[in-house]
Amino acid sequence: ADLAVRAGGGPPLTAPAAKVEFEGPIVRVPPVSLSASDQRPISIGMAADWTTPARGPRLVQVTAAGQHLSLALLSRMASALGWPGWPSEGSVSINAKAILESGSPPVFSGWLSLSKATWAPPWLSQPVLLHNLRMDLAQRRVRATGLVAQVGDAMVTGAAERSVDASGKPHWQADLHASDVGAGGLAALFATQNPAPEWLASLQVSGKVAATYFHLRGLLLEDLESDFTLSDRDLWLRDARARLAGGRVIGSVEMDFARP
């Protein structure tokens, strides 16, 4: 049968032929190539355990695969599945699977790769340009590699890994490098009238950071290297080492970002 899918507005994705299989309470759509008139095709498959029709499926599995897809398409699909806020400009290649079970957080596997993406959430004062980013997904880990991002004049590169502890609490471990950044610029980035999302307030990140130039209260620190911790919107630079006016300085810096 012909298949048309609408996700979050925009032109429908269509396939000239698709199968729907029924096996007891399981409803399954085997992977099918869907495309819009102005976009590359994406392969989508889905299965649902429809044991309680009045309340909807208890378990949904979705697979997606495609090369150099429009991020606008992925953003619409993510919003339709309850994950708003994805970049809507740029390109993405993907081969991933999501399992959504009632009462449990979603489980992901596979990978996706973003390029030339613009992320402009309303709670940031300027957009983030993601020149390149690959994300490898596993049940309890997400690894981000090949990061090349730009915010204003600052270029940021590096990698990060998200893990979940035994209590289910997520934590990111990161190794980042910035070309030119400052305490004032970071504070201004979040100085909007729009409230930040809840996940940002609970974000836990630690690791190592380096900056070619770091501006701090009128001082220009060069070749900064430091351990860092981001927790409850507090950014700590611990055992920071840098060059200043021909000498070396060692110390710690705390930046407390304004609450919404």
List keywords for this structure.
two-stranded antiparallel ribbon, 260 residues, 16 strands, 3 helices, mainly beta, 14-stranded mixed beta sheet, 8% helix
Briefly characterize the structure:
This protein has 260 residues and is mainly beta.
Shape: elongated
Spatial order of the strands forming the largest sheet: 3-4-5-6-7-8-9-10-11-12-13-14-15-16
* Element order: H for helix, E for strand: EEEEEEHEEEEEEHHEEEE
Distance between the termini: 50 Å
General description of the model:
The protein has helices spanning 71-80, 183-189, 198-201; strands at 3-5, 13-15, 21-23, 26-34, 42-49, 59-70, 89-101, 107-119, 128-137, 141-151, 154-164, 170-182, 204-216, 219-231, 234-244, 247-256. It is mainly beta. The strands form 2 sheets. It has a 14-stranded mixed sheet. The protein has a two-stranded antiparallel sheet with strand order 1-2. The longest helix is centred in the first third of the chain and has 10 residues, at 71-80. The protein is elongated. The chain starts with a strand and ends with a strand. The model has no long low-confidence stretch (mean pLDDT 86).
SSE blueprint:
Blueprint: E1 3-5, E2 13-15, E3 21-23, E4 26-34, E5 42-49, E6 59-70, H1 71-80, E7 89-101, E8 107-119, E9 128-137, E10 141-151, E11 154-164, E12 170-182, H2 183-189, H3 198-201, E13 204-216, E14 219-231, E15 234-244, E16 247-256
Parallel strand pairs: 12-13
Antiparallel strand pairs: 1-2, 3-4, 4-5, 5-6, 6-7, 7-8, 8-9, 9-10, 10-11, 11-12, 13-14, 14-15, 15-16
